[in-house]
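User: Just a sanity check before I run the rest of the batch. Below are the structure tokens for the first item. I only need the designed sequence back.
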């Protein structure tokens, strides 16, 4: 009997599952479909560089696998009906499935700040990043850019933009007492010093309570900016948040130990839509994707489900422009040129492996 595996989203997690399934011994009558709004995989972890103008979009695209067992269908998912095992696509017929992989990723979380969604820029999707690039690089000389959020995305964007546009006045507004709050103190001090030496202002304990065109309010005080970029948090995709199943406070779906919905064992969730005991990342999505592929293959071959180990992440690497970086690998803190070289190498290996 035919089995149809439907993957929603060709990001890091969805693509990893597809790769693992195509490399395995799939049963003869298994069909595999990927639905994505883009005709290629986008390297989302590097969108900050596109927004800053230091990388071309062509360098951030990777082709989907070319395999006769895989059908790539382009379209925008509008709703998921887990009762009817059907996915609705904008302007197209619904698509039925036997197994569903939800890999729709995340979107910006605006924390209820009035005007934030309407009047700030984003680097969460490729179309939004294109607009952010145009806006930032059209700013007049010596203009002002405000980046709301001092996590990894905000830090990488600010540093890359500093190298791209040395004339601009750049400031990061962060709610914490320091940027990169989850990271070790030695790393935070290094990054703060880099920003100090490169004239990027850091505004700590910020509270952005309203945004208007080219204007925002920090603790009620107006601050003018030519452009404002929002990197202050993420939440699960709105399609996922609409599902009638258990979720966490970020709208991510609660899962069984084998990564499927407890009430719908034919629905798996990977990446930023999944409630997991780790911060969302491409590395986490890929590690989870490896395990989901194992479970799916066991199901397809009518074998017992495998015992899955706890996911262990290798570490985090971040960039400060093209020459400096930072990272944490196990208990080791990395600062300077070495983590930047490592990050470039990891990216090259990833693209080369997919090609």
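Assistant: Here's the designed sequence for the first item:
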């Amino acid at each position: 009997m035919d089995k149809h595996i439907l993957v929603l989203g060709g990001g890091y997690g969805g693509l990893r599952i597809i790769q693992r399934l195509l490399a395995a011994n799939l049963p003869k009558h298994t069909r595999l479909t990927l639905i994505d709004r883009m005709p290629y995989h986008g390297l989302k972890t590097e969108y900050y560089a596109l927004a800053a103008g230091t990388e071309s979009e062509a360098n951030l695209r990777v082709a989907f696998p070319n395999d006769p067992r895989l059908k790539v269908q382009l379209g925008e998912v509008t709703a998921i009906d887990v009762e009817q095992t059907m996915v609705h696509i904008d302007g197209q017929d619904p698509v039925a499935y036997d197994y569903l992989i939800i890999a729709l990723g995340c979107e910006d979380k605006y924390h209820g700040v009035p005007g934030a969604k309407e009047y700030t820029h984003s680097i969460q999707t490729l179309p939004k990043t294109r607009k952010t690039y145009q806006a930032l690089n059209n700013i007049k000389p010596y203009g002002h850019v405000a980046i709301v959020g001092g996590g990894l995305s905000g830090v990488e964007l600010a540093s890359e933009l500093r190298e791209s546009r040395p004339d601009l006045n750049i400031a990061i507004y962060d709610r914490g007492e320091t940027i990169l709050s989850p990271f070790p103190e030695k790393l935070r001090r290094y990054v703060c010093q880099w920003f100090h030496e490169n004239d990027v202002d850091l505004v700590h304990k910020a509270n952005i309570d309203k945004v208007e065109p080219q204007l925002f309010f920090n603790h009620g005080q107006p601050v003018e900016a030519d452009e404002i970029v929002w990197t202050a948090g993420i939440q699960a995709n709105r399609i996922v948040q609409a599902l009638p199943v258990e979720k966490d406070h970020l709208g991510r779906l609660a899962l069984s130990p084998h990564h499927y919905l407890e009430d719908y064992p034919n629905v798996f969730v990977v990446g930023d839509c999944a409630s997991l005991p780790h911060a969302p990342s491409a590395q986490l999505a890929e590690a989870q994707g490896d395990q989901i592929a194992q479970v799916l293959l066991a199901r397809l071959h009518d074998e017992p489900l495998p015992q899955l180990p706890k996911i262990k992440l290798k570490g985090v690497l971040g960039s400060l422009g093209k020459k400096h970086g930072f990272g944490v690998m196990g208990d080791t803190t990395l600062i300077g040129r070495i983590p930047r070289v490592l990050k470039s190498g990891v990216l090259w290996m990833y693209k080369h492996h997919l090609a």
